[in-house]
């Protein structure tokens, strides 16, 4: 059957684009055996027989081996010719010829009929002009330091294989720096200043489609400000030079420090001791949506320090580093941290926390948690002073006065009522005081129950007897009592308590908040009929220094025969308090106020009505006022006990100590010039005498030496004279006197000449 051959192809193809031509057979039998031949400008290009065997001409074998040329049979009636990259050499007329064949007896193909297609002309289309657009992904040309910068370079025109290079021109510079590049085959390279091609690189270049190239700087720096330039290149086959297009865009990287502000606040800058106070470090920035990590450093300057010390450091990766300046600070501080706020809640404030605080904030970029990036910006807050003061005391004590009248030798209690006290970790200390009935009697401290409930007796109540008589008790939180056993005459007087409020702080110190004094309780004894009377005659005593003096105290009556008496001697000097010197008890025992007084004082009873205080070797400091207090003792109760039931006090005796007459040794020692004369003058005289004797010795020795020399010279002269006469006689005899002319030298010189010969 007859058939027709047609060819289909695009008449105009852009250079570098693929071209496919299809040769179709129309008509013919059901399963014809066809073979096809392709022609270009009437020159055979390729041949494919009915068995599918392909034959290429020499020029097209090389292109086929490079994957640029392909001939195939699509179906029994369709043949295909593909050129994957059309060049100028491919422009021209294409034609295909199809022959129907059958197998001959000899095995060869026999052509039954052959048809040709009309020519199909292919023209190259000239490359259209391209344009390049550079933009940012978020449409903003200003970013914050550390923020990601994404630049897009989009190329217009026909699809083609393109290469791209990104360049950066820093601010105030003209020389561009290479950032990154991607070739047509997808090979990428980075500039020397933008890291290496690895997973931690800060710069990435991607090709999102054939015409779009994306440059991303994940963490920008200030140096990234400037102009970014995108250069797109296109290379076609057999073209000497690349075609390129360029577009620029300016970018500003704003420093984080430019909008970083740090402030420090506290709702309680004046905090009470043991209370809680807070510190808030607030960060204000213009890039809150970036959620940059912060490192907050809390610093503290103590009241007497000139430098700030580290309290704690909250790093941007979440760790907390504590300083060593305040050891207890970590245990009582709660730390809370949000994106732009750091808060400290300090419990149980002590005076150690009083001082100046400040916080230092460091800003890092978002990728620093993974890349260990450097600090981007820092700012420090203004200093904030925290003062720690004592809380106001709310202590109130019952101040009403009362009178107690009891029988002698009975027991009594004196109360100290607390009406109100402060709250918190508080303790109370109670001190009991006593003042005797006598005029101008001082207040004596009986005992103190301190804040730890330890009882300490006063100086005048250190004796065993008085410790047994007075006891303190804490009945409840609001009631303290002083127990007095076997009340006697000497216990009459006024009593009151002083209450101190103490606050315990966590640093181990006690702080006194306040002190209140109760009302007076006057203790009286019911009359027993006994009364001691002492002679009220005052007097003066003058005594010389280092001598003895006796001070007397006399009763007007000796009282009942069943009574015993005790006496206490007191001394007072101007500008000093009264002092108990010695106590002669009713049983005759002596008790001294100080152990050192035993050698200088002696107290005794010279008669039933007279008491004597003897002072030995009186010193100038013993001057002052002396007086006695005599108490009457009687047996009371069952079993019987000696009880002081009455007492009286004498008038003051003023003792004046006169300086003693100075002795001759004391006069010498008291005169400094005389002392110098007696010790220095003999030394000077002895020194001069020694020097004189030394001079005389030297002079005598010199005279002795001169005398000895004269005697030797005289003896030598006598010897020489005799020798000279003998020599003269011998020379006359021998006729040798011509050797020494007479009168030429002295006899001594002649003797020396002869000795030399």
From TrEMBL:
Bilayer-spanning residue ranges: 674-697
PROSITE patterns on file: IG_LIKE
Domain Ig-like per the UniProt entry, residue ranges: 1-107, 127-252, 255-381, 391-500, 527-630
Any single GO CC term annotated in Swiss-Prot or TrEMBL for this entry: membrane
Keyword tags: Disulfide bond, Glycoprotein, Immunoglobulin domain, Membrane, Signal, Transmembrane, Transmembrane helix
Pfam families reported for this sequence: ig, V-set
Protein name: Ig-like domain-containing protein
Natural source organism: Balaenoptera physalus
Source species taxonomy: Eukaryota, Metazoa, Chordata, Craniata, Vertebrata
